[in-house]
Every structure is written in C-alpha cells, then in structure tokens.
Records
---
Amino acid sequence: MPAKKKYPKIKADIPIVAEEEAVYKARLDGRLQDAGLAPRVIDLFAGAGGMSLGFTKLTGHGFKPVWGNDFNESAGKTYSLNFGDHCVVGDIVDILNDPKTKIPKADIVIGGPPCQGFSLLNKNREDDPRKMLWRQYMEVVERSEASIFVIENVPQILGSFEHGEIIGVAEAMGFKVRWTKLCAADYGVPQTRWRAFIVGCKFADPATVFPPKKTHFNPNKGHRKAFSEEFDEYVSNPLPWRTVKDAIGDLLPPVGTEIRNVPSPLDLHFGRTPTKMSLERYRAIPEEGMNRFDLQKRAPHITPACWIRKTSGGTDLFGRLWWNRPAFTIRTEFFKPEKGRYLHPEQHRPITHREAARLQSFPDDFKFTGSKIEIAKQIGNAVPPMLAARIADCVFTLILSKGVSKCRTSSTRLKEAGSCRGYQEPTPALR
C-alpha cells in the first residue's frame, strides 16, 4: 500500500474548510498563495498550458506544476517557457510504455484528452482513436497516486460510451465522480465557449463544491436576485458578462503581418494582407452581428457559390463580433473569417492573435512561442485560464475540506452529493 500523503500545515488565518465562494474571493484578494499549501499538479495534453495557468499564481492560486505532456513541440515549448522545464513532448502512449519513464507523485491530475474524437466537426469521430486517450490519462492518475483529477473536453463527451467507461474506471479506482458542462462567459471569460468537466476525488464528494457558482451573468437575461439555498447558483454580487469591448477595446489597429519583437501586447497584435476580394467582402457587411447571409443580401456577386447553395446553418461564418457581447468560441483558425464569427466589430479585418488570446482570457504577460500558425493553435485549443481558475477554486476547497467531519453547502448540492463533508465556520478573513 502506498504511504499516506502528508499535506503541509495550513496557516491559522485560512480555515480548514471553506465554501468555494469564499475561496474564490480569497483568491481575488490575493490571499490564497499565503495559505501554506502548494498541491502538486500534473497537466496532460497540456497544450500551451491554459489549464495550468488557472491553477497557478497568475490567477491567484498556489498550485505547483510538477509534470506535463503534449504531443506538439511548439506547445510544449510554450508550456515550459511559462511553467518550468518539466514538460515531456511526445506521444503519451509511447511515453508511458517506456520503462525509463517516471511519473512524479502528485495531488491532482488535470488535462483534456484530445477532443477532436468527440467534436461534431469531425465527421469520422466514431472511429477516431483519439477518443481512447483517456485510458492513458487515468494511468497517469494511478501512477502519480493523485487523489483528485479534472478532465476537460467538448460537451459531446458527456453521455458518450467513453464517458461511461471513464466513470466506471474512476469509481473502481476509488474516486467519487461528478460532471457537468460550463459556459466560460459565466466565469469571467469574454467568450460563450461551452466545455465539459469531469471531476473525481477520493476523499470527498466533488458535488459538495462542484460545479462552481457562476461569477458573471448574462445581462440580457438577468440573474436570480434572491440567492436562496435552493437556487444558489451565483456568487454574491455577480458581475455582467465580460464583452468583446472589455477585452480588446483598448487596442489600436494592428501593425504589420508578422510577430514583432516589441513588448506585449503589441508583439502578437498583427494583421493579414487581405486580397482585394476579401476586403470588398468585409466592407460589404460593416455592421456588428452581420454574417454570410447579410453578405449574400447586400453583395451576392461577391458571395461564394457554396454559401449561396447552403441555405441554412453556418450563421457565424463571415460574421462580425458585437462590441457589447462576449465572443463566440475561439477556434484554431480565428484569423480566417470564413471559418466563424471572427471579424472585428468595426474594422475591416479578422481579429489578431493578441485579440484572440485576450478573448480566451490569457493575460498579456503570458509568453507564446512558435510560428503564427502554431501560436494560433495554442490559443484556440486552450482551456480559458479564467474558467480553469474557477475549477481550481473547487479543487482547493476540496483539499481544505480534507479530514473534517461536517460541511456547509447548499441544499441542492447536499441532495446531489447525498452526504455532507467538511464544515467549519469560515474565519472572518474568508467571509
């Protein structure tokens, strides 16, 4: 039997257990990094490290990344540049089969097995071998002796055959498991990106803290003003969704078409050289929210024939963003307006790499490396760091809850969890 993990002593001004909202507020106030805890984290299929970023000091947490992996060399270099030289680049199957590979001990494993196998954009998804890489993920969980794991993926994974297998394997390993899908805009990301999360914990039921309460609300729909236990979905005093203007409204028109050796944010704030036809199309749909259907109405002579033939769907193709709304999902080819709603709200151009990074909630001081295409992939494939930070709030709360006999949680979560774990009245510092 492996030795029981020893956690460092928690400082007196941090409660042994706290509501995840209290942890969230303590993080915003910069108080979590003094908690005396530095849980060890492994990030698999890490990409540039958006998930890791949510668990580290740049978002207010104090988790310690100890190992990472990604298949892409450029993504691995970006990860190492920001989190340390412990990212192993290569096929995770080959890495785990190598007898020389040593997986370090960790408290948490995070990461997103490649989602293309589940994506609706993948027409061959039923036979895609990438749907099986969750097995290697769980192998790392086992070999690292982690007591918590977080899997991120596209919403389509929920309800899939593989989802059932993941839950079955995790429960056989002693984990209690909960899952849901979350909208990034509800957690401070200026983007309506939906992602699925599966959280497992050995020493507590994740349902006591997960899913995290929403910190932002859709101002067009409002939010519940009466924060009763039964409908306890938002933190106290939630903010309206962050918009495109909030994220990129301060940036001047881009300069040049290449990555520049200048301080951030201007290093990645470059444009493209549009063709005469592309520029004519941009100018034909000058208003926010317009898309390919507006192009067809206003300028059918320059509308691609394939768009004219396709009379339904694809409402975001060649679309302009709105200033006063979050962006739609930022994918890896955000610099191609024909791929989605990626036109600037008022300028006749697609969004830049820096604008895409901000819409993903990456801070300007996060360092990307690689070619323009590689960096675009890193940005588009990333878990939005601010969304990851709310998941980290839940994980940190679970760790604080360890070993305590009672808990405080909403009645909704109690019903879902079926039990109560770990309560101690929060200290004034975290109230």
---
Amino acid sequence: MLRQEDIVNDILRIVAVPSFTDNAEDVVKCQTEYKAIAEEMGFVAHFEAGRKVLVIEPKEVCGVPEIGIVVHLDTVPFAKSEWSHNPLGEVTDGRIYGRGVVDDKAAAIMALHAVKELEGKIADSWQIIVGSCEEGDWSDMESYMNSNPKLPKFLFTIDGDGVQNGCRGYADIEVEFRRKALLPGIKVLKQLHVPNATNNVVPGKAVAMVWQDVHQQEGKAVHSSIPETGENALMKLVDELRGIKEVVQEFPNFFELMSKIKNSTVQESIGFPADEIDCKEGCETIVVPVGCSLDGDDLTLTLNVRLCVHSCSSMISKMLMHICLNYDSNCYLRDMKLPAYVDSDSAYIQKMLESYEEVLGIETKPNVAMGTGYNSMLPNCVIFGPRFAVEHDEEDYCHAVDESRKISDVMKFTEILLRYLEKVWHNKN
C-alpha cells in the first residue's frame, strides 16, 4: 500500500540536496541520495556514462527491459531571498515546496514507490533512468545512449503535463546589434542585462544604466515554454527605455525587433512569413526574449524559440537569415533540439490515456508538449507527466519562485503510474 508519509519524506530527502545543472558535484550528491533510497527499497542501483546517469533496476532483469522510466535530478538555480518558503524543502497547507518539486525530483520518487508497490505483482522488466543535466546540454543522455545500444523497448519521461506524444523542440538564437553613435565618444546606454539569465526561463529581473541612472524592472520568472503565465522583466524594461529617445537612437533595430515580439508571441511576430510554418497540431512557434547583455558597443539579445512540432532545420536557417536582413544584425544559432513525435495510436500511449481516465474520471487526449526534454532525443519516448494545473485552474510552478506541488497530486499520479504499469504487463502475460 502506498504510504503518503514515506513518499513525502523521500521527496524532501532529495529536495534538501541542491543540484543546479551547472554544479556537477552537487548533482552527483543528489543522485547518490536517490541511489541510497532505491537501495533501501531493495533495488539495484549503479552509475553509467561517467557518473552522469544513474540506473535503477530490479534485482533480476531478463533481456531488454520493457519499460524505461526517465527522470532527472538537476534543477535550475534559485535565489533564496526571493522565496517565501524554503527552496530546499518545506510542507505547508498540503503542498510540498522546494526547487525541483515540479521539475523533476518528486516525479523521481513517485517512480520508485510505484515500482516498489508492484514488486512481485508484475514482470521485473523496467529501468528508472536518472539524468543529471536535463536543464543543460543533455550530454548525460547522449553518453548513455552511445554506451547502451539496447535501450528499453518503450520509454517515457515523468516530466510534463499529462500524456504528450510530441514536443516542440527549441532553438536558442543570439542577435547582435551594433551601437549607432550619436556623438563621438558619447554612450547613452551604459548597461543592459538580465541577471542569472537562463535560456529556458522567462527573466524575472532586468537592469539597465542610462547615463548615470539605474533602471530596473521586476517580473515573474516561469519556464520559457509557457511565457504567457509569467511576466517578462526584460520586455518591461525595454518598454521603459523606449521612452528615452537617445537610447532608441543608439539601438533602433533592437527596439524595433523587441516591439514586434511584444505584439505577439508567435513566430509571425518577427515578420517571418506565416506560410513557412506548418502548425497542423495547433501549436504555433513562439519567440521569447530570455537574455540581454551590452559589451562596449555590441548589444546581444538572446531568444528562446519554441518550435512547432513539424519544424525542421531549414526553417530555422530561414528565420536566422530573415532576422539578419530585416534588422541589420548578426544572428547566430547557439543550440537547437528538433521536435519529436510518436503516433498516438500506439498501444503504450492508449494505456496511458486509459490510466488517466480511470483515476481522474475524465476523458484525456494526448497533446504536444510546449517544452522539450529527454523525450526529444530518446527513441520511442513520450511524456507521461503528473502536472494537473489545468484541472485545478492554478498556475504552473515549474522553474518559478516558490516551486511547489500539491501532495494530493503526488499521490494521484503515483496511482495513475501504478495502473499504467499493471496494464502494460497484464497485457503481456
């Protein structure tokens, strides 16, 4: 029987260990704590891919595992001073608070308790694959795939909202603008930057210096795949600076591009032809300013572009060329992950939908993920996630200040996961 107290305590154990993506040593510490929990449950745990990936297995596995459950323990950073709850773990009013509770530490614990509950009842044909830099460059999973040619037959990441058989992909683009001098030796804009900028986070703070005056705007940081749920501090600051004529005159093309992006989040906002976009799934490409820096006379804008599920690399190339030609800028592609898609008619996916419907009591349909993750690079992999924000009519706390999850949702999804695993193996036997 699932014990809520045990699940909550185990979540708090790993949330208590900070594990920012850029700090590999701390991530390993968190993985080691998770490994200890798994071993206490009687499972076998070992590191692979140069300690980048932790694999949890039953004591005896025959052949290639049927199911691979993929999670990650690395997180985006946090500023403790901005939180009203403990970012390293706190339970208040039926919620668990802490960095990683939504993305993705609670999910990792749910997976452990689900397979433990089914121990001896289903075939021992599974793996829990624990990554260490999902919020970074995904080199962990790349190394793991290279060293494991025989991956589980079907994989899913517990990192998202519901059953998502496709994901958008993304492109990180840097656009460079050159200062247009008003008078020789005179610089009006002295500074413009986003503190602690991260490519997959809508900035919650932005700072500028004009002459000797400091201008600062606060916003609400959220995952860049859902910018409409937050408040972009950089956009707010640019709006403020737009009222200073001399600043606009120094970087006119920067302000023109930002003005276009402000008016709409779809790719069409930058003037890129709409007929270049294939959006059969109803997921328009979105363009999100996530960073900005001024180095001498060069102003660099960082854009996180969330791609339509049918986007291709040639479309990205056309977009870069369009920005260069229309905004008198240099444009560089710094990173890109193309979209992924698995047919929704797959028996694995249909059983996920059935499990959701049985527990939630409502009809569920697969959808395309706004963000991207390990599922976009692992073969035959989808998202099977525990976020119920839509049901509760509440905001998504992923990557946000006071990141939290309802304990009732933790238990609800663990039950969904149980039902799913039972269906998969019952069908096989």
---
Amino acid sequence: MKQIFNQSVDSVSKMWLKSSQGIGGGIREGFNDFRSELRDATTTKKYTRSGIGQWDQTLLWAVALLTLIGVVMVYSASITLANGAGREAAQTGHSYLVRHVFSLAVAVFIGLMAFQIPTKVWDRLAPLIFLFTIFLLILVLIPGVGKSVKGSSRWIPLGLMNFQPSELMKFACILYVSHYTVRRQEYLHTFIKGFLPIGFIVGFVGALLLFEPDMGAFMVIAGIAMGILFLGGISAKLFSYLIMIGITTFGLAVATSEFRRKRIMAFLDPWDPEQAQGKAYQLTHSLMAFGRGEWFGVGLGGSVEKLHYLPEAHTDFILAVIGEELGFIGVFIVISCFYWIVRRSFMIGRTCLQLDRSFAGLIAKGIGIWIGWQTFINMGVNLGLLPTKGLTLPLVSYGGSALLVNALAIATLIKIDAENRVLMRGGKL
C-alpha cells in the first residue's frame, strides 16, 4: 500500500512539474489551447502543417532598406560632382542617380532570374562558372580589352556599363570552394589531396587580382575561401597554414609596393602634416565627416565633405557621407541591417546542415562571410580602423557590377531558405 501511495505521489509531482509553474502554468496552457481552438473555429484560413512562410521576409526587408538608403545617399553624394573639373564636369547632377537606378533595375531582374535556379544547378555549374570568371580576370589584363582607370585595369566595357570581373569572382569563389569542400570532405585533413589544390587555385586567383591591381578584392576572396574551408571541417593545422600564408602574402604585397607602404604609414599617423595632404587625405576628411554628423547628422543634403573634399564620396566613402548627414542614428541603422543579413545567412546555413544540405549550407554561410567581411573592411577604412582600400559598401555604394553580383548572391540566399522551408513542410525538391 505504501508503495502504491508513493507511486501516486510521484506521478502527481511529475504532472505538476510538466506545467510551467504549477497551477498558473496549467491555466496558461489551457487558455492558450482555448484561444487556438477559438481562432481555428472562427477563421476560414487554411494553415499548413508547419505554418512556415515561403521565404524570409525580414531578410528581404533589410536588403530593401539598404538599397533605398543607397539610392538616396548616392544621389546626395554625387549631385555636386557635375560642378567639378575633369570628366565629372561633363555629367549632370542626376547622371550618377540615373545610372545607379538603371543598375538597380537590372540587378532586381537578375535576382528574380537567379531565384528560379535550384541549388543543385549551382552545384553542377560551380567549376564552369569559376573557370569562366578566371578567363574574365585574364581578359581584363589584356591591353585594349580591359579598361584602365587611375592605373588600375579592372573593368571590361560593355557599352551601357563597365563590368568588373573581380566582383563576380567573389560569388564564383563561394560556389567553387563550397563545391570543393563537399566533394573532398574526406581529404580535407590531408595536405596533398585536400589543402594543396585549393591553396594553389586561390593563390592563382590572388595573383591575377594583384596584377590589376586590386588588393581589396583579393583580401575579400581570401577571407571567403578561408572561412568556408574552416566551416567545412579543414584541420586546425592546415588552417593555421592558411593564416600564415595569408599574412605572408599581405606582407609581401605591402613590402614590394611603395604605394601600399605609403598607405600603411598614412594609416599609422593620418594627422601628420605630410600625410594629411597625401595618402591620408581621404581618411582625415572621412573622420571630419563623422565628427560633423554627431548624433543626428546635419540633415540630408547638408554634407560639406562631399563638396570635392572627400574623394569617392559616392563609392568607397559613402558611409562617411551617411555619418555626416544622418549622424550616428543613420550609421547605426545601416550596421543593424548588415548585422541582420549576416545573422540570417548563418542561420539559413545552419538549417541547411540540419537538413543534410552541406553544399547549400556552405553557400549561405559563404554569402554571410562575404557581406560581413567586406562591410567590416569598408566601415573600418571609413572609421580609420584599417588602411585605405578600394572596397565598396555592399548594396549601398554606387557601382553597377557590385550591385548585380550582390543581387545574385541575395537571390541565391533567399532561394536556399525557400528550399529549406519546402523540406521542413515535408515537401521534395
């Protein structure tokens, strides 16, 4: 009898603990059940088994907000360029806005087309896309084919716009390294079959980029490759080799270039009178722009630094104009949007791995690494935390090629998320 009594007490205790907080939790659960039943009885809406949407709308809204901020700030930062000297004087105040909106429209169209492509197609085409992009990087170095601006040969003229192959290489690198990591998963812990082939390929791409020269793109692509290999399961020993090779390559690139050495010296002491009028000119005026903005900015269109003081205000240093006109609040909104995009990218990638979709998961995380790493470099340059590099702010800065490739990446990310949601509903791809 005593044993039966003890068993009864134990069962009652377990029932008590299952509720959140005793009787209160039981009442709350009962109320929630009643509310759910009442809702189902009074609505004609049909719910799916999971209640999962078609795609991540918050991700899409963050991207849309950044692009709208980009349109407004590109117009604000470039409207005074027509009053300057040189090739900008032949433009009207609306020229950059028109071209930016045109590029954005083409980017939206490309994004819609890319959304229709299943992830498995990217898996099949990854090596071909990578080889084609390498061909474009070689083509841009041929005199008469590649367009040179300020000593850098990075563009292929296409009539209405100039295409920059290094931007496409960022996306192609994500596809190929993800493909390589999945296909050679069993060899990632070995040097000959795992590390050496991908190291040679990335090094070859880096050499082509340094010949342009485009040090910023090389840093982004190297960061993407290292990040995907790390997430793919490369051994810690080989990963340390990658880090040492990256540091050595960067050191050699700086040591063998007087131009880069001067930029490093300017970064270390930007307020030196000689540096402030030389290589640190952009950095000092960028810092002055942030200082003028304070908390709420001087108002849209009220920037002084964009009046031919801050070079490339509509491209590389557009964040400085945002900081001056919209203040800390505007910069915080931009950073928050980028944070959400990167966060969602990694969450989508984690869901892919849970669904046994390794290739799609690495692509999603690779896109997050790309956007996060490039944004960090651009913001670091604008704030004086990193040496000056020619990298745009994704989705915000003026530039046709960057917008097109960014739209391609975002559409692929949303497609991966949509495929995940189909699988979580019990569907098939």
---
Amino acid sequence: MKKLSLIIAAALLAASLFTSCGNKKASDSISIMFQGSDNEQAAIKGVAERFTEKTGIKIELLYTPHDSYTSKLASFIKNKNVPDIISIDGPVLASLAWSGVIQSVEPYIDSAIIEDMTPSNVAQCTYPIDNKLYAISYADSTVLLYCNKTYLDKVGARIPTSVEDAWTADEFDDILTKLAALPEVTWPLDLMWAWNIAGSEWGTYAFYECLVSGGSDIINRDTWTAEGTLNSPESAKVLSYFQKWGKNGWIVPKSAGENTLYNDKRQTAIAWNGNWNYSTCRASMGDDVIALPLPNFGKGTRTPNATWIWGISATTKNAEKAGQFLSFMMTEEKFLDDIKATGTYPALNKFAARCEDYMDPARMAIAYEQSNYAVSRPIHPAYPTITLAFSDAFEAILNGANIDAELSKAAKRIDEDIKDNDGYPPFGKK
C-alpha cells in the first residue's frame, strides 16, 4: 500500500463506453482479477479454495502484478471480456461506473455486510450519480501523524487523545517551530515526499483532505467545477502553512529517503504517513512512536481514505455467484485473520473488532477513529486530470511557487478537461 498507483484512466475510457460483452455466458465458475502482496495473494487463494469446497463454484484467479494491472484491465475492457469480479483502486471507481464497466453490487451482497461498512468504506464505494454502492471492501486506508514521543515531550507538546482533539494548524506550526530548535532533529516533519514519484498518487491522496479541513476542496462536488473552489482563499491559507514549512527547511527532502523517523539517527520528529507503515515504525521505535490525528486546519480534521476495492462486471452472467463469493470473503473468519496479519486497515466494523492494534488506544485506535472523518477523493471520471493538476500544484507550492497562480492554473486545467468532455454527463446535471 506504500505506493498508491496513479489512475490514468485514458486507456480505460478509450475502451468505453462498454455496453456489451460478446457471447459471454453464465457458467459454474467465476473469474476474479486482483493484485496484492504475496501474503494477500495467499489469503485470496485460500478463501477461494474454501469457497469452492463449500459451494462447488469454481474460481479462476487472475492475479496481475500491480505495475501492469491498469494496462491489463484496459485490455480486458477493450476486448469486452472483463472478469466477473475485479479489484480496483478506489479513485478509478467513477471512471469504471461511468463507462459501464462495473455495476452496483447492492443487489448481490448480503445486507448485513453493507450495514457493517464503516463510513469511509461507504464513501469510497459509492457512485454519486445514483448513490449506490459499486464496490465493497474489507480494507480501507488512512493517513496520520507518527510522532517521536521523546521529542514531543522535550518541547512540551500537547498529546491529542481523539480526532476531535487534534492539533490546530497554528498549534502544529508552533510545535514544528520548537522541534526545529532541537539539536537532534534534522527535520521536524517528513511528508514522505520520497513516495511522490512519477506514477504515484501520494501527492493528492495524503494532502487533498487538508483543503476540506480548511473549508475548501479540490473541486466543487455539486457543480463539478474547480474554479472558485480549488483556487479559493481558504485553499491558499491551508497551503501557505506547507509552503512555510518547506521554505524553513523543515520538510525531509526526497533525497533523504523514507525512514528518517525511525532510523538509528532519529532525524525526524513527525512523519505524515500511512496506516500501512505502523508496524515498521513500531518495530524500530517501540513505544516511542505514537499515532496522532492529522491537524485541524479550521473546519475539523479530515482524513483521506480508499484503497483497493472489489467490483462486479456490468456484463457478467454470474453476478449472483460473484456476490455470493464477495459476501463469503467479507465474513469468513480464516480469511479475515489472514488479512489481519498483513496490518490491513479494517473497513468493516466486525473485522475491526478482530484487529487488536486498531482497537488499542496506545497504538492505532485513533487511526480507526479517523474512518468517521474521512472524505473521499473526488469520485468523478475526470479524476486522472484532477489528481495530476493538484499534485503538480502542491509540489510547486512546496518548492516556493506563487500559491494563487499555481492553484488557478490547476483549476483551469481541471475545468478545461471537464468542458472538453461535455461535463462527463450526467455529472454536473441537476
């Protein structure tokens, strides 16, 4: 989960609109396309075998490496041969639903599972045109602050105990100022900028929610226009903090790598980091690493979410069987225990109850609490342009560029894409 894929949907959309699937017929087997780590692969293979043993329905597993996943899926779409079930990265849901590749899963998933979904899971899986779920998942993600408690104690920093108790932006700024004065701290803050490489989604995923926290957003989600929202005074105020921290030399540069919080030198005091990195930090730092909520930029802390989720092909003849498998996977105890061992952020309440780290206030309970404060990245077919525009602007601003100019350029870029595609109807239509 460390490196989130950049969803370039051009290949997907070039193969759309996807309205037919040749002579594909119902069968006694279902095909599943997925990606993941070795441990995830093993867990999915195991649950598929147990499902077949229980139901007699055969499973064809189509594992595809992460780096080639988008191109392989695009090929399936182009050839009108999409597998019955596909695992998709959260931000691509809108493109696939809009282009008719996936369908609502609600008729095929046990209602008890849907009722058990966390708010952030519901948000990432909902298509805003009809407000129905087009995917489901046992997993989610979040970003939080991993802090060196020794350093925080040295500067007398208050330790938040809940999301509602998060540091304000000014309080966070003051803490960074004091941390920067500690001789043992090379950089007070690691934004994990080493992860923001070509093909990465980190620049948007980890920071768009700060705009929402400040009373703005990347795009107006009612009108689906960026002008006046992305380049608003509220956005500029939020990003002025990040620019200040960059100009002061407080942010870990890309060249320093990604482990300055927990390496032997302990060069960093606070890391803006993903839930998936907790076990690594704790293995190195023990109880000296504490997990705290993201700062409140004025309108309450908001956090990102969305990871790989599971959808059903719109053209499958095996939708009932597909839903049966997904319902089995979401509830089977052996599978959930196998997945829990990978440090997965739980997206179902009953699964969360099995995840000790996410229930422990001394460890990651605050991360799980953040599922109630998450805001999804814009679920819109133009998301590939939206994320590139924002990420480019954010990096330029970190490097000292004029904030208003960069945000206006990004807003124009987004709105032109939407205009060039006639608004991606029915988006923007009342």
